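User: Please fill in residues for this 80-position structure.
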């Protein structure tokens, strides 16, 4: 299972609002994103994401995709 960690990555960097994230994306990555798109990224796990958006997030937040997504393998029941 993939877990979306955007809010944690933002908090680790002292970014507390979608507006602040949007400004950072524009300033550091030259990437503009709509308010509804920012809200969707902050309020739920994305089902899909453009490579450009992921690249801009990583550039602006100085992180890697591995910081934004954490993979947790499903637990397997031992067979008896």
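Assistant: Residues filled in for all 80 positions:
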């Amino acid at each position: 299972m993939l877990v979306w960690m955007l809010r944690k990555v933002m908090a680790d960097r002292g970014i507390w609002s979608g507006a602040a994230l949007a400004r950072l994306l524009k300033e550091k990555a030259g990437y503009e994103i709509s308010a509804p798109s920012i809200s969707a990224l902050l309020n739920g796990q994305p089902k899909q994401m453009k490579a450009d958006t992921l690249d801009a997030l990583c550039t602006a937040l100085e992180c890697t995709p591995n910081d934004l997504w954490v993979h947790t393998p499903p637990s397997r029941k031992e067979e008896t």
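For context: The mean pLDDT is 93.
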